[in-house]
Amino acid sequence: MTGPSLTVDSTQLLRAAAIVHQASSAFVGFRTSISPDPSPLAPESLGASEIARATVTAATHQLSRAQDAGQGLAALGQTVAGGLQLAAVGFEVLESTPLGGPR
Amino acid sequence: MSTSGAGDSVARAAISDAAQRLGHDDPFAVVDDLVGVDVGALRAWSGLTSNARQSLSDGTGRLVDALGPMAAGWSNPAPQRVIHRQREAGLAARDVLGRQIDAAQDVISTLESTRLSAQAEVTGAEARILATGWPPGADLLSWAAGNGALPVVSATIGGLADAVIRLRSRNDAALESLTTTLRTDPAEAVDTLLADMHATNLEVALPAGPGLDPPAEIDRANLDHLAADLQSSDLSVQFAALGVQAALDKARADGGQAQLLVYESASSTSQGRAAISIGDITRADNVVTKAPGVSSAPATMSDGIGTAVALRDRAEELDPSARTAVVAWYGYNTPLGAVGGSPMTPLADVANVAAATSDVNARVGGVQLVEDLKNFRALAPQDARFVGIGFSMGSTVVSAAGAYGADFDDLVMLGSPGASVDVGSAADYPGTVPEHVWVGSYDQDPITTGITDNLAGALNGLRLNQYQPTAFGPDPADADFGARVLDVQSNVPDPSVHVGGLLGWVVNPLANKVVDLSAHHSEDNYLSGASLDAVASIVVGHYDDVPVRPGR
């Protein structure tokens, strides 16, 4: 379908949506559950010193943030994939109308 | 720590006691801390973080594969830009984790090395003490003093105490280094991206021109509204918002300054509304409001930004002393453009086709345009000139708005299917004299030559459009209408197709109409070349430079 300078190929859009959806699954490690893995570090795992405790605290936090990053990107990907599917279907319907061309 | 026998264990107790009597910290307290570090836990942490990094790597790699089909599937750059930014954020997170894993591996090596070294230091010290002939069970320092072994015993204990302190310092330095690396948040880039999807910090702060005050932030409320919609869980709302954001980005990149003058969310029954000004409306001498044709919507409005920028640029070339702002106005519900609004259904589809063959949407849009123009006038300088330009059904909108009191200084209809059923001639605009009503109509453009009336008639036969015998009102390029018709030619070659076979005589005329429609009837074609020059001359009031010819 074409508009003033718009080009749309619904088949390609659906293909792109499927790939983005796969990327979303990859971002969370293909897990069916997105529950984060607990950190294996206990407060004194690396020693009783102040720096050892601080390291454990930072490492535990950043593991959680690493999982946040994957989940955030997965959620965004799912939104984009859904939008692309919606657009593809919408354009497909428009394409099938008698007045699918530009006006 | 491990011990190799009862003698070692007795030696350990003696060394510990002697060290403290000699003024050292108990070396075995330090050694126990060094040896007791759970390196396996840090290794497990590294493994989980590596998994997360691998997931980010896999996801970003897969996104690359989506860019090709997306570029081939939709010329709208907004979704591609989102994917591109999503991938960049994923790569940034991956790289942060990579550095943290590397730092953790260094620490694991250090901790393991330290543990072995501490054990070796203890074993060596015990061996040296036992080698002096010290009888286990005797007080070590007393025995050494009485047997000439005090220098060896003191040196051994002092050496052990110093060694374990050095090992502890080495561990602390390694942990300090890891903690420093762990200060970088791996999710920061992702958080920024998600915030940008709805926050106003996507807005690019543009430098003001020399001697100019920064432009007033007249569109803050609309930008905030758009930012919120970018995070909407309603895909129709979010997708239309993405389109508007893409148009804003394009307008800022190509036009230098953009203001979101109108923004209303899409919904299940509406495409939403948006208007973007190319140039600062608050300082404009000329304000153009440009309405698009069918198949347009806020979700795809970046397609109309290019012509708005081209018109603004050409107008300012023709009159460098005057500032021109061109408002891309996507303020009416355009048939066949419902991307950001309602999901299309067969029933809605039929309704859209019917809507495309009448000017009802255009006349409703005309009322909306009059209302929006009141706001635009309030923002613009008091003596600014206002020009209404519409392409295709958008021309019907601006014509209807003119009839309803838009008070355009100049009104320009391009590729018009008709001036709306509420307008009979160029004398029907209360605020615009006929000499300032202009029409651009290519002879090869089938939309301007009755095809829409024919289609409306066909639909009347199907009882889909029975309330309106003429689809869009009079042809404004008709001599009787009384407008000034631009003497310009289409910018594209006149294509022709020939279909052979027994039915060629039936198919050829229809095929050529379709080809003409595609080739000549586009906003780009009407706002480029000689036609763009003519329209830009109207915008800046250089009327003598506008070529005109008699109407049809």
Describe the structure.
The complex is a heterodimer of chains A (103) and B (552). Chain A has 103 residues and is an all-alpha fold. Chain A has one domain (10-32, 40-95). Chain A contains 2 helices and no strands. Chain A is rod-shaped, with a radius of gyration of 23 Å. Chain B is of the alpha/beta class. Helices cover 53% and strands 9% of the residues of chain B. Chain B has 17 helices and 9 strands. Chain B has helices at residues 6-21, 27-35, 39-73, 77-131, 140-146, 150-181, 188-196, 220-229, 235-255, 305-318, 346-356, 360-379, 393-403, 451-461, 504-520, 523-526, 529-539, and strands spanning 258-264, 273-278, 286-291, 324-330, 385-391, 410-414, 437-440, 484-486, 548-549. Classes of the chains: A mainly alpha (103), B alpha/beta (552). At the A-B interface, helix 1 and helix 2 of A face helix 3, helix 4, helix 6, helix 7 and helix 9 of B.
Write out the strand line-up for the largest beta sheet of chain B, numbering strands in chain order. Answer: 1-2-4-3-5-6-7-8-9
Beta content of chain A = under 5%
Query: In the residues of chain B, how many domains can be counted?
Result: 2
Using only C-alpha atoms, the radius of gyration of chain B works out to: 39 Å
SS class of chain A: mainly alpha
Write down the overall geometry of chain A.
Answer: rod-shaped
Percent of residues in helices of chain A comes to 55-70%
Task: Report the β-strand fraction of chain B as a percent range.
Answer: 5-15%
Q: Structural class of the secondary structure composition of chain B?
A: alpha/beta
Mean pLDDT reading of chain A: 77
How far is the first residue's CA from the last residue's CA of chain A? 12 Å
| Mean pLDDT over all positions of chain B | 82
The number of helical segments of chain B is 17
The percent of residues in helical segments of chain B reads 40-55%
